[in-house]
Amino acid sequence: MIRTVLGVAVLALGTTALVAQTDPIAARKALMKANGDQNRIATEMLEGKRPFNLDEAKKVFVVFIEAGEKAPALFPDNSKTGGDTAATVRRSTACPPRTTAAPRMPGRVPPRTVSALTT
Questions:
Q1: CB atoms within 10 A of CB 38
Q2: Cα dihedral sign, 41-43-49-51
Q3: Which of 30, 75, 91, 112 would you call most buried, defined as having the most Cβ atoms within 10 angstroms of its Cβ?
Q4: What's the 3-state SS for 10-35?
Q5: pTM of the predicted model, to two decimals?
Q6: Mean pLDDT across the chain, nearest whole number?
Q7: By the 8 A CB rule, do 71 and 20 touch?
Q8: What is the predicted pLDDT for the residue at 11?
Q9: Residues 67, 73, 77, 15: is their CA dihedral positive or negative?
Q10: Are 72 and 31 in contact (CB under 8 A)?
Q11: Running DSSP on this structure, what letter comes out for residue 4?
């Protein structure tokens, strides 16, 4: 089973490398999609929605490690424009930055150290 998992990981690595040489934007999207798929599997196992499978868990980490190794090469200078690569800064208006100190709650006792609580 481990051989199968590693075989699939190597195949995915080869496919991503081939795509990366021709279109780094598409390769980044494929890499992010693979990470998202593996993240979903791991999350389902952690939440108990999927039974734990050691081979699948190992595959998740193999894919994450490979993504970390491949990602820096997928951001060459010539790929900063084109596709949907426009970088935007998100500014939330729901919670504006705090300009004053937080108000103190009346009657609130200041926190004590652990040693003060045990003596």
A1: 19
A2: positive
A3: 30
A4: HHHHHHHHHHHHHCHHHHHHHHHHHH
A5: 0.51
A6: 75
A7: no
A8: 61
A9: negative
A10: no
A11: H
